[in-house]
Write a structure and sequence with these properties.
single chain; 116 residues; alpha+beta; five-stranded mixed beta sheet; 4 helices; 28% helix
């Protein structure tokens, strides 16, 4: 009788291992969407011009407004970023001194569009 009980317990354990819950399969990677862009606000050139110092620096690049204040201290060109603080920086931004990564970096500073 003991042998039968042990055999049943053994079969139960083996069955649980074979037919029991399996480890979850790896979840397929989903394509990550870029973070949603902030709501676009419209600024006049006069409004942008008020932000023209090292501690409050906005620039315009192709009719888009960027608050680059947090980046001023990190700018590899030093204070050259301040030459057009509060004004249009498109020409300098697209100059040969900038690596292509700058085009991706600037998006994090986007705050709105220039109102004409």
């Amino acid at each position: 009788m003991v042998v039968i009980v042990l055999a049943l317990i053994f079969c139960f354990l083996v069955g649980a291992l074979v037919f029991g819950p399996k480890a979850s399969k790896p979840v397929a990677k989903t394509i990550q969407q870029p973070p949603p862009r902030k709501a676009s606000k419209l600024y006049t050139k006069a409004e942008v011009s008020l932000h023209n110092i090292k501690t409050d620096c906005w620039i315009i690049i192709k009719d888009k407004v960027y608050d680059v204040t947090p980046y001023v201290e990190e700018h590899p060109g030093g204070d050259t970023i301040l030459r057009h603080a509060g004004d249009d920086s498109s020409e300098g931004f697209y100059g040969p001194q900038h690596a292509t990564r700058v085009f991706d970096m600037v998006d994090e500073f986007y705050i709105g569009e220039l109102r004409h």
